[in-house]
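Notes, p. 3: input format for complexes.
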Amino acid sequence: MSDLHVDYLGLRLRSPLVASAGPYTGDLDRMSEIEQAGAGAIVLPSLFEEQIEHETSEIDRLFSLHQDSFGEASSFLPEIDGYNTGTDAYLALVEAAKYRVDIPIVASLNGTNVGGWLRYAKLLEDAGADAIELNLYTVAADAAINGDAIEAGQLELVALVAEEVNLPIAVKISPFYSSLASFLFALQDAGAAGVVMFNRFYGPDLDMETLDVQPRISLSSQAELRLPLRWIGIAREFLSMSIAGSTGVHTGQDAAKLILVGADVAMTTSALLFHGTNHLATMEAELRDWMQEHGYRSVSEMRGAVSRDAAADPAAYERANYIGNITSYTSRFLGAQSIGLQRK
Ligand SMILES: Cc1cc2nc3c(=O)[nH]c(=O)nc-3n(C[C@H](O)[C@H](O)[C@H](O)COP(=O)(O)O)c2cc1C
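Output follows (344 residues plus flavin mononucleotide):
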């Protein structure tokens, strides 16, 4: 029987298959199903910076409105605490999740500005989270702010959260950095215990009748695995922090690919939404089958076996791969066309 145990963010997980943040991971019954299906850990849906800041400003507004009528303004605090706000509900979810399942629970904060909301990291720790995933989702749309400034702000944020809590921090990033390798290294220096590669961006769409710009979510496809595959393969050799592969993991073999290039865990959301939470058990069986067929006794033996530094052809991760892809496609395509012509 192959050994699936892995270390991720300093936590010992029974499996490298992790349920990433999504609709199912915010529901206690689904969490139990995910645990029963064999997941190594669960990442909760994110608590958003905007949500927290909005509530804080609402609370401040209420607080100042009534300050004059009540000498002891602080007497309002217990009432405010009792609101069933999103943030309170989130902390309650962390507590309930810890009660319901035995596998590690990773809480998720989603924000990019240094602000008052950061104190929530401490509250998540107090609520019992085993780790925090900090999602740095941003769209760098301000022409007056250059890449250095954006990255400096993000690194400061990571350092502040890491300082605030005694929990390991994983940072979920996009692939859109001018020098991703250098940013990854800086993240580790800033105190991140791990990185999740990558966030998936949902571009807006246009309604062609109303011309409204609309949000539209589509689930991932397996083809999207190629991006984390390349970058994890490149980054494994110079990062000592944990690496989670995310986006496009739909099968046990997809997870095996990520582990082979150097990931510690493989995360999945879309596949569970397509097939249900029990799909994790299918993925585990596929992973075990592949390991057995290829002579791997443990996931730790597989990890990084074909990362860039270990691969027979390191150039396959870089520019040579791009050139190889387009030339082989073109010759195959033209070859197919000429066969077609001959047959006519
Ligand atoms: C409906 C939906 C909700 C999601 N909510 C969150 C979220 O709250 N926080 C987060 O970091 N990622 C969220 N994600 C992104 C997933 O965690 C994951 O990174 C993304 O779907 C790519 O992985 P996949 O290819 O396995 O789906 C969400 C994805 C979906 C489809």
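Residues 319-343 form the longest helix (25 residues).
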